[in-house]
Design brief:
313 residues, mainly beta, Neuraminidase, five-stranded mixed beta sheet, five-stranded antiparallel beta sheet, 26 strands
């Protein structure tokens, strides 16, 4: 098994930005985006950020709500963002916001959009119960062919890591509903707007920490999963699991930052690096003093030679 110690990449300049960073996404050219889901325990706003690996500088745009995900579009400076209960287009240069679809989860209270993935033919995104208690959050497909919004499930608690893949030759969705500690795969029919019955790919219930964000390895045979550890441990972790065997193939550790939220593979300077976001969320004042790197962004070596450009919306 390969073991890596991640290096501190960026310490956000404010407590607001360190509270809940998530969703790093490769923009090409040594840049990646990430979201600050909310700027504090009681905050109802967050931010969209762009980090430049060439200059080690971060640019931030405050948003009129809490973003769960952000992906670049084919238009310069424009991102598609899950914001509260709507999917919206956000211009990073001007701050202009326009609706794509929503609202979602109309039949329940206390949920907001969380993680998502671009798929051939649209976006799949899920919501979370902000109290992390009830299985009432939706999982949705926005289909680009007819610009329609389809509810796939309405019984998740905290919809996190998800990726499209071919599973036994069938278009499918790899998905994590964090409290279950299971990684499951659903057959996904975009044209019909349906999910088949789930099959468990990885059973992580023996792990004390919770699986959060996820990215596939370049060859699609394994998943790198970030673990959000609510306990007072010395370091956070992301692990690479073979999807066929469940075997752990690699591990990345984030020193003094146990709550790892999301991974991304980023090509830079001829190498493929793993970027990891981490959070301060739910830490006591004593834990914040101990985990001085909580809420920071990390970067680490990988065994990969190349990675395909990340898709755009």
């Amino acid at each position: 098994m390969l073991n890596y110690e991640a290096e501190l990449l960026y310490r956000p300049t404010s407590a607001e930005l360190r509270f809940l960073p998530e969703g790093p996404y490769d923009l090409g050219g040594g840049r990646f985006s990430w979201v600050g889901i909310q700027h504090g325990a009681t905050a109802r706003t967050g931010s969209l950020n762009i980090f430049d690996l060439n200059t080690r500088r971060n640019s931030s745009l405050d948003l009129p709500g809490r973003p769960g995900f952000a992906f670049p579009t084919a238009h310069a400076d424009q991102f598609v963002v899950g914001l509260e209960r709507h999917v919206r287009l956000v211009n990073f240069a001007t701050g202009e916001v326009a609706d794509v679809c929503g609202p979602v989860d109309d039949e329940v209270q206390g949920t907001i959009i969380n993680d998502a993935t671009l798929i051939p033919g649209g976006i799949v995104f899920g919501c979370k119960d902000v109290k992390f208690e009830e299985s009432k959050a939706g999982l949705y497909l926005w289909r680009s062919s007819d610009r329609s919004l389809v509810a796939l499930r309405r019984d998740q608690t905290c919809s996190n890591g998800k990726k499209p893949l071919l599973w036994h030759g069938q278009p499918s969705l790899l998905d994590i509903d964090t409290p279950t500690k299971l990684v499951v795969v659903y057959p996904l029919d975009v044209a019909q707007g349906t999910l088949g019955e789930p099959s468990v790919v990885l059973d992580l219930r023996d792990e004390p920490a919770y699986p959060d964000g996820m990215v596939l390895t370049p060859d699609g045979t394994a998943a790198i999963i970030a673990f959000y550890d609510p306990f007072n441990v010395a370091a956070g972790v992301a692990r690479q699991y073979n999807l066929a065997t469940g075997r752990v193939e690699g591990e990345w550790r984030t020193p003094q930052s146990p709550r790892v939220t999301c991974p991304a593979l980023v090509a830079h300077a001829g190498q493929v690096r793993l970027v990891l976001t981490t959070a301060v969320e739910h830490m006591t004042d004593e834990e914040k003093l101990q985990h001085v790197n909580a809420g920071c962004l990390f970067m680490a070596e990988t065994p990969f030679d190349s990675v395909a450009p990340a898709p755009v919306f």
